[in-house]
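TL;DR need structure tokens for one chain.
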Amino acid sequence: MGDYEDIRARIEADGVEYIYAMFVEMHGKPCAKLVPVEALDDLMSDGAGFAGFAAGPIGQDPSHPDILAIPDPASYTQFPWQPNVAAMQCDPTVDGALWPYAPRVILRQALERLEADRNLVLKTGVEAEYSLVVRNEDGSLAVADERDVDALPCYDARALTRMLPHLTEVSKNLNAMGWGNYANDHEDANGQFEQNWRYADALTTADRLIVFRLMIHTMAQRDGRYATFMPKPFTDKTGNGLHAHLSLWTADTDEPLFIGGDDDSKGLGLSEMAYHFAGGLIDHAPGLAAVACPIVNSYKRMGVGAPTSGATWAPAYAAFGGNNRTQMIRVPEADRLEIRVGDGAANPYLMFAAMLACGLDGVDNATDPGEPNTANLYTLPADEVARRGIVALPRTLVHAAEALEANDVLGAGLGMTPDGPYRDYFAEVKRDEFFAHHHEVTAGEVQHYLTMF
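>> reply
TL;DR here they are.
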């Protein structure tokens, strides 16, 4: 959208009565105020006020001034499932300045530097997996579709058919918002689905993912279910990933820069810039994992062991290759990289900013990602993995947080705050999160250890 008058005209034409003024904190939780359109003038000029410390980790305590969240008109989106409501994503400010702890601000500023300093644009797409579940009387989870019990449910037309009311409504909503839905499928786990829409610039894609998650939660609740993007909701089933497709383009001429030519050095159809970008991602993968896999549960999704339902698509190693789904970076077509490390808990603003920083470092240093891997890394013996120099991804959140804290490229890429690099704030929050869970005695521990000794 354009300026304020364009927004007002759009709101009137759409019959919208309320605006969600939205932003996210570190975890990606959608925070909003419901603003009647009669107060649109104040919203657009002054923003929506929030006590930031109450929203979640966003660098505030009760002594801080309010956050004023300033709407971005370009993000205006009418909710097809609630047509009298629209959303605008906001950039949080404090005392008139952009708040450097806000994830959308972090990505926006990284993209602005990318264009100003390099004449580049980052374009991204995501594959957002989620599970539809219900809660049993004892609080445990069960797959919402009680008939979805097959050992290999991926792409099953019968399970897809049973969920047609949900899936077709989501598809219609995606297209009504102008996102270009092109696929909807049953994924590898029982009760797991994925719905795809076209790529866009990284800020737009991140904004859309936040709205998508809100939509899926809302629709599941209306149907008496829960939707979860949790990385590993079931021990024995495939987890929910967030595969990201990345490419760089020229800002002035919109020319794709990852497509290779006759000088393709590795035979995958990519440009040298794309190979070096991949090299940077591999080089910084341990620290990147903290941002792309940001909760304790994330590391129960990763590893080489296969679940009993479907297959595992989570990478265990920082490796690169062609159309091989057992590694961190896949090349599905000769125009982009598919980064497979992210999961459903990732904050897309932070994840894209972190991936951009890693990739650009690879471009600047002409980092070689190595020869394309063709092996099945889920079955390749550990000694052979080590012999090839392939690095394992962190095994826990605290290991990833420590790798992040030691990574200066990610420190620069995620920006500075008044108290130091945002990297350090993120790592501290995640380290505390890990130990809070680690110190909690679980039912599994009691069952395993109660009478062992």
